[in-house]
Amino acid sequence: MTTPGGRGADRGVRGDLFDPRCPTRQLLDRIGTKWTSMAVKALADAAPDEVRFAELRRRMPGISQKMLSVTLRSLTRDGLVSRRVEPTVPPRVFYRLTGLGLSLETALAGLRTWAEEHMAEIDRANEANDEEADEG
Questions:
Q1: Among 39, 46, 94, 131, which residue is least crowded by beta carbons within 10 Å?
Q2: Running DSSP on this structure, what letter comes out for residue 5?
Q3: Handedness of CA 120, 123, 129, 131 (dihedral sign)
């Protein structure tokens, strides 16, 4: 919870997902993106080893260099990913999940499992909705 006059006084009440200032909502906004979940999965697959930036990008088809950089910066800031730079020319940059990041992967794995188990139902619902829209 935020405290009156404390550091989080200008934030919303923790746990009120309907309040855009809610810290939980803000975190969910960051970790709920497709690129975040893909980056966490790719790093988890390599754990406990590190992954170089270029290799991570190869493992995530469709992501731009800029978007991967932004995603990794956010994950690092949140303490989910650690970053190590070797001072070579050009610099070699390595990433790995922290313990906190590995705990997020556990939660995301459950969500992926749910999606895989229910994808056929979702597809049928989409098709039915599209048919209704075409008829009406």
A1: 131
A2: T
A3: negative
**Which domain covers residue 39, as residue numbers?**
34-135
Going residue by residue through the chain (136 aa), what tens digit of pLDDT does each one get? 443 334 444 555 667 888 988 998 899 999 999 999 999 999 999 999 999 999 999 999 999 999 999 999 999 999 999 999 999 999 999 999 999 999 999 999 999 999 999 999 999 999 999 998 888 7
Q: Which residue is associated with the tokens 């950089």?
A: 69
Question: Please, are residues 98 and 82 in contact by the beta-carbon 8 Å criterion?
Answer: yes
Clarify whether residues 24 and 61 are in a common domain.
no
Q: Where are the beta strands (DSSP E) in 1-136?
A: 51-52, 81-86, 92-97
